[in-house]
Amino acid sequence: MKEVYLDNAATTPMTPAVIAEMTARMKDTWGNASTGYSYGRQAKLLLENSRHILAQSINADDDEIVITSGGTESDNTAIIQTAFARQKLGKHIISTAIEHEAVLKPLHFLEEQGFTVTYLPVDENGNISLADFKAALRDDTILVTIMAGNNEVGSRMPIHEIGEILADHQAWFHTDAVQAYGLLPIDVKRDHIDLLSTSAHKLNGPKMMGFLYRRNGINFPSYLKGGDQETKRRAGTENVPAVAAFAKAVAVDTAEEKARRQARYYHFKQRIVNGLRENGVDFAINGEIKPDNLNHVLNIWFKGISTYVMQTDLDLAGIAVSGGSACTAGSIEPSHVLTAMFGPDSPRISQSIRISFGALNTDEDIDKLIAAVVKIVNKLKQLDGGAGKNGI
Predict the structure, then answer these.
(1) Which residue, of 252, 284, 311, is where some domain finishes?
(2) Count of domains observed in the chain
(3) Mean pLDDT by 10 residues, the chain (392 residues)
(4) Does residue 339 have an active-site annotation?
(5) Contact predicate 142/86, CB 8 Å
(6) H or E stretch including 206?
(7) CA distance linking residue 233 with residue 230, whole number of Å
(8) Of 229, 252, 275, which marks where a domain is finished?
(9) What pTM was computed for the model?
(10) For site-directed labelling of 292, which of 181, 182, 201, 222 has its Cα 20 to 30 A away?
């Protein structure tokens, strides 16, 4: 049985070209980039060449890229260090109700330290209101942290508009771009972004690798205490082979490739919706299908069928999908994203799955998913006498 992987918002497989790059560098460029002899100089050169590729991808300067272990470290560093470094200017922060846990948990920690956080609500499509944002902005706001795109429903935040509003405000602007980076065009100068987080494994790169963009002029102490790597901004010996592999994944992900993938994933969404409708499946989309959203994410409410049942039956059919964010998949707590969108009593919270596409998916994969869902729905209807209650 050919297995189908449709949980690319959780992680993506490394492509052959990226694996080849990382393997080669593990063999020939494994030196410590902080040393002064030939092994170190070779590693340092590869590190800086890779940094240049990463910087170019968001229109940043090379020295604004800080190599990290991924999105969680980047988010924690940007949020916590900004708060502590700027608390004399104010203790107010603005975010949204649908951020990733790597943003929400640092914010909860800061609330315990006496900071105030305004969590902007979202509508049933997962969008915030710029009017709400403007109303929440205060003179003592020191940080705005709003994701570029949501990892559960694919909604896209008005990053450019927020950046323009903040251009003349004291607040620093951080965006968690972990899901958006690699799919959407990002320009930190155009969008007035001060801090930006990424993670390599979301775009076919290695895990435990990412970067924090930190605009020149943004100063706070290193989050990790130790050596003076990354010009004293992030302690720890750099994983040069993994950085090179990350840069390889980014280098092949050109603007044209981003647009091609977005169009392809939009086609996948339409194919799934049409296929389910043609087969009489009772469902609804959580969020909205728009060409300029994060098109690799599709969240579907299968009415009357629990998330657990649908996800388990699809797994038995050789198809991997998610019940929400992979970072909370082991939790019994309902999706905070769907709760924010539809309220705590909505059946969508316990009857929805997330399908997310990647570079290796094909129309054949999509058709296999449709056929499997139709089979599962029909089986449950028969078990429940057509009521569909067995899956609740």
Answers:
(1) 252
(2) 2
(3) 93 97 97 94 97 98 98 98 98 98 98 98 98 98 98 98 98 98 96 98 97 97 92 93 98 93 97 98 97 96 96 97 65 84 96 97 98 96 63 46
(4) no
(5) yes
(6) none
(7) 5
(8) 252
(9) 0.94
(10) 201
Selected catalytic residue, list 235, 285, 327, 392: 327
Q: What is the CATH number of the domain that holds 238?
A: 3.40.640.10
Whether 160 maps to a domain, the answer reads: yes
CA distance 154 to 354: 10
Q: pLDDT of 28-53, one tens digit each?
A: 999 999 999 999 999 999 999 999 99
Distance CA 152, CA 325 (A): 6
Length of the chain: 392
- Report pLDDT for 179: 97
Q: What pLDDT score was predicted for residue 324?
A: 66
Check whether residue 54 and residue 137 sit in a common domain.
yes
Claim to verify: residue 271 and residue 369 sit in the same structural domain: yes
Structural domain boundaries, residue 197: 16-252
Distance set, CA 299 to CA 182, 190, 337, 388 (Å): 20, 31, 11, 20
Look up tokens 């020939």; give the residue.
Answer: 28
Q: What spatial distance separates the first Cα and last Cα of the chain, rounded to whole Å?
A: 29
Per-residue pLDDT at 390:
45
- Tokens 């969240």 appear where? 299
